[in-house]
Amino acid sequence: MALLSVENLTMTFGSLVANNNVSFDVDEGSIVGLLGPNGAGKTTTFNCISGYYPPTSGKIFLGGQDITRAPAYKVARLGAVRTFQVVQPLKELSVLENVLIGAFLKEKSTLRSLEAANQCIDLCHLGPYRDVPAGELPIGMKKRLEIARTLATRPRLLMLDEAMAGLTVTEIKTAVELILKIRESGITLLVVEHIMEAIMPIADKVVVLDGGEKIAEGPPRTIIEDEKVIKAYFGAKFSKRLQQERQDGPAPA
């Protein structure tokens, strides 16, 4: 059953077409990767789903409810929350205070909000930094802090925008483990990511954009062999050479 349905999404900025007739579903309980080269329209798609941009045309449904033109705060209250490429925590506030902001979206009790915030902090391995000002954290921890804050809102759909960009190999492994734990808790994930090696093994489905249009959709094992995807990521020359090697076998070393 689809938790999120994007139907014929188009977003234009004057003469620039950032998204052109994009459609895809995100099934409840799944991890869906939204991939594509720089400028493909991935973040614009996120902005439309999360209520930051009203799309030029098309429809967006969350749990069957039309959220196409709902403002960001209403989309968040309905259970779709997102992180951002450039993390912007409230630097002077502690880790706990930052996460509490998310908890207060749906919870009015201070005690229950504290309990929820602390649970999310522990899940994201930030317990030792609970009272540290957010501005003092390194980038990897700031990204985990943003995830913890979104989790504190008790989302149905969590949208991660480049959550692994700029991380070390060890931090990427920790991020992948965290994503799997989040899915195990019953939360559906839509993940924008450039690091294909990280998202491909854990995604149930992958949607690939290029130039604002959807060029491929399906299981990771079929996406990595799709000629349009290879061309978008590695260029026409690489795609042509790969096709030739498939026909003739690899060239001798």
UniProtKB/TrEMBL annotation:
One of its GO terms (biological process) is L-isoleucine import across plasma membrane. One of its GO terms (cellular component) is plasma membrane. InterPro entries: AAA+_ATPase (IPR003593), ABC_AA/LPS_Transport (IPR051120), ABC_transporter-like_ATP-bd (IPR003439), BCA_ABC_TP_C (IPR032823), P-loop_NTPase (IPR027417). GO terms for molecular function: ATP binding; ATP hydrolysis activity; L-isoleucine transmembrane transporter activity; L-phenylalanine transmembrane transporter activity; L-valine transmembrane transporter activity. The keyword ATP-binding applies. Keywords: ATP-binding, Nucleotide-binding, Transport. Residues 4-236 form the ABC transporter domain. SUPFAM superfamilies: P-loop containing nucleoside triphosphate hydrolases (SSF52540). It comes from the Bacteria. Pfam families: ABC_tran, BCA_ABC_TP_C. This is LivG3. It comes from Desulforapulum autotrophicum (strain ATCC 43914 / DSM 3382 / VKM B-1955 / HRM2).
